[in-house]
């Protein structure tokens, strides 16, 4: 009977290690609030966006099982002069491309939060009314730049959640780098690792039993 149990344990572990199981992240894992304070992004991964000329910008793209979160600053150093870009935010979900424009952002007052409207222009001009977005323009001695944060529900884009597909953002107005979303899936490797551990443990116990005998 014990031999059967050990055999089943090993088979179960090997099966887990081979099956590409995908697990979705919990909703709002990132604790991002769209409030114009931007402190929620301090510990999030950011990536440089740039051309060979002009200031270096930075952006972050996150995703859980309900929302896509996006952060962009037109000055990584917080010392540059570059206005906010309102067009051509190329959000790709799987094979579908959504080109996002920012409305109500032509007259952003200095050192104030401005609520803006995201518009998906990929299939007509569709206002994303359930996607909160805030732009803050930072102005001071020698600098004038802007930061935006937003949260987009998948359902407003008629898109499935991140599990099993790639999500990325490209902003040609700022640079040609492509930012890939972080989050949304543990991928197959975590569970595969668990399977290998179970299988190894079963083999170890079985061999130990044989030696004792």
From TrEMBL:
InterPro entries documented for this protein: Firmicu_CTERM
Transmembrane found in the keyword field: yes
Transmembrane segments: 178-204
Keywords of this entry: Membrane, Signal, Transmembrane, Transmembrane helix
Signal peptide: 1-25
Protein name, UniProt field: Firmicu-CTERM sorting domain-containing protein
Species of the source: Companilactobacillus farciminis
